[in-house]
Amino acid sequence: MVPVKIVVDHIKDTPLTVHIDEPVDTFPLLVTMQDDNNCSITGRIQGDLIVTREYENVRVSGRVSAPLALSCSRCLADITTFIDTSFTIFFRKEVALNASTEDELELGEMDLLSSSYSGDEIDLTHEIEEQIAMEIPVKPLCSESCKGLCHECGTDLNTSSCSCSKENVSLAFSALKDFKVTKK
Ligand SMILES: [Zn+2]
Ligand SMILES: [Zn+2]
To answer: Which numbered ligand comes closest to the C-alpha of 144?
Structure first.
């Protein structure tokens, strides 16, 4: 578990390129999410970041990706997917927040993600894991039209049907028909 860190003094006039290739274990939040959300990151977290220094502030932009396996929230079928997300985070040094700092930002940059750092290192571990975590679907679906499992007997309604589901569907349908008729 070595955190992904950048040393601010290593960023010179030219942007610093940081290649990320880490096991899931590096990111505590993702380890927790695997347990809680019943999903699994099936490979390494990879990415490329460009780190630019702007006076005492540091801009990190780039993309990170991770292969992900989860199960459909309706029918429990296995889903494999790939998270690939781009971001820009602006790190302000955590001292002397003078009024002019805001003015130095170019227009349109206020909506950037911003964070802060202190000392001479920036730990990117948490920022990276948050970017990945935001992309993990809370209610994954194998397809938008997934019919799910029958609540009564557990039959997968995508591949077969059962008597209990037919009853429910026809009841719902006749109720709808009645409604239309009474409206006329
Ligand atoms: Zn499904
Ligand atoms: Zn059924």
So the answer is: 1
Q: Tell me the pTM.
A: 0.75
Structural domain span for residue 86: 5-135
Which ligand sits closest to the CA of 141?
1
Ligand 1 centroid, distance to 73 Cα (angstroms): 7
Q: Give strand ranges (E) for 11-127.
A: 16-22, 40-41, 45-54, 57-71, 78-93, 113-117, 121-123
Q: Does 142 fall in a domain?
A: no
Segment 124-145 mean pLDDT: 94
Distance from the CA of 99 to the center of ligand 2, in angstroms? 65
pLDDT computed for residue 93 by the predictor:
86
* Residue 163 belongs to a domain: yes
pLDDT at residue 1 greater than cutoff 80: no
